[in-house]
What we know:
By secondary structure, the chain is mostly helical. The protein has helices spanning 2-6, 11-36, 39-54, 65-86, 108-127, 132-141, 146-153, 157-177.
Amino acid sequence: xxxxxxxxxxxxxxxxxxxxxxxxxxxxxxxxxxxxxxxxxxxxxxxxxxxxxxxxxxxxxxxxxxxxxxxxxxxxxxxxxxxxxxxxxxxxxxxxxxxxxxxxxxxxxxxxxxxxxxxxxxxxxxxxxxxxxxxxxxxxxxxxxxxxxxxxxxxxxxxxxxxxxxxxxxxxxxxxxxxxx
Length: 181
């Protein structure tokens, strides 16, 4: 934290920053861990969040804790997803377990069609807009519950369930449109 304080200009900024760091570093770490599934990467994301904050202290120079928390979570969320995209760490390779209807190997033609369907589905998920893509990834690949996703994305659990339903419908419609049952 000392490094961050050196980046700030006024004693008031330093005081506010220290208070925010003390209040939010651990909750932000929990949110980052839910997204990144990696302790070291989560710590890096929290540090990245506070580093970005040093350039935007004007946004948090108030006593509105909800607004400050929301701003920090937004920075964290964007930082995490940017890193995951850059590292191509959003793995879709475990998708096979999500589709029980795909053949287990006795029928080569069915396996080929199944693998093709998985590739198409991967591409469709990548094309989903925010927040649909994030909800699907957090729900199916990170295996988070609606309440955890809601906390990470700053939504209500009901809203997360609704977004997930809409995202699944979009994916199903796109698969049907492309000739997959």
